[in-house]
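Continued from yesterday's entry.
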Amino acid sequence: MLDRELGWLPGIDARLAHSFTESWSINIHGAYYRGRVDYDGSTQQGIPHSTDTMTRLTRFGARAERVIYKKTSLFIGAQAHRWNRNIQDNNNISGISETYKWLEYNLGLNSYIYINQKDILSFEAAYLLTRNATIDVDLSRVDLGTATLNIGDGSGGRLALNWKRTSENNFNYGLSLFYEAWNFGRSNTKRTSGGASSVFVTEPRSETRNIGLKFNIEYMF
């Protein structure tokens, strides 16, 4: 493992859903997360190095869902992701700016575990495919130019446990605990351009693991 980043990314998630029938529904959604995380890795010479990374993660997507058995639904969807990493300069070692962009296709099940007059508890599981991923590498702060690499396809999964408290004023409240993971394959190798000199850059295989907690406010109209 060449480097590791760990930290909290607070953000906001918005969703608009519409039910066509008792069995069919669709939704569109977007999310934005931003924060500073700890970076632990090494330099090109293998010297241990620690700094911070300013991180922004943006998502936009849609999914269709159909009830297939009682309180269990099958869904299929897609999301576009953009992940900005600005690794900070530290200890006289220059950082680097990277922007990942990729498409995610997902297929999964959503099932109600417990329902009473006011509370709903549900569980969701999905299989993910990452496709058409690229990374923009910016080394201009050390005048080595930029390059765009194609990243290898990967896969992953997402699990979520959702609790919702219903009310009579069209507002519902709840919490969601989720875990998600995905992988990227190794990229191609490319020479940078646009700087005083150039270097060859490669993105090795990478893995992402996220654990999160969401507070949800839902309005029914």
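--- second protein ---
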Amino acid sequence: MQKKDIVNIEIDGLLQSRKNAVLEYTNSTKRLIGMGVKFGQASTGEIEVPESFTPYLGKYEISEMEFEWEVVYTDGSVLRQFEGEDTHSFKDIDLSRIKSVTYISNFNWPSDNRDSRVTVRLNCETGKFEFNNGFIDQESLAYINDIPGGERKLVLFNRKRKDFSAVNGTKDTPLEFLQMIDETVFYNRFVLGYETPAGKRIIIISPNGEINLFGK
């Protein structure tokens, strides 16, 4: 076999590998977006919105954190995660007098109409969940509102996954030919529910509004 034939075979193989990699990249990105993962540009901070939002949310801007919480106490007072310039954390919640916890999608809408947003509310007195504009199947809905007996312990947190990729890769592995590496990827999953001696009822909310059972 002549040398030029060997080179041509190698070129063909590398071109095919490149096509396969691009196809795999495209397919995996599409699947990730469907799961609620959000992509942005590392250099500009601009965020691309998952397609799964568009059928029901209309026109909005979106921030890095997809949901914010608010707590209603038994005396009717309200504690919000964001109140003016103040930001509260879960540790600021007085669990001894809590009535309900609500997660609210914090998109910046043209109006303050929260009826259009994804909301998930847990009534801590009854153990009942309420859902608005989120995606939950009927089997999960029936299970989550089949309330186990015993004293309820609130479960309230979010799990964050982030990945930052620079335009030129790392110092040891420069990637100057791969412009698509200029991206920020993040996926925050919000967890709400309770545990009792007889069982637990906990849900996990994905950034695209999909609601699943957590640790059934």
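The chain has two domains: 1-34, 37-213. Residues 1-34 form one domain. Will compare against the first tomorrow.
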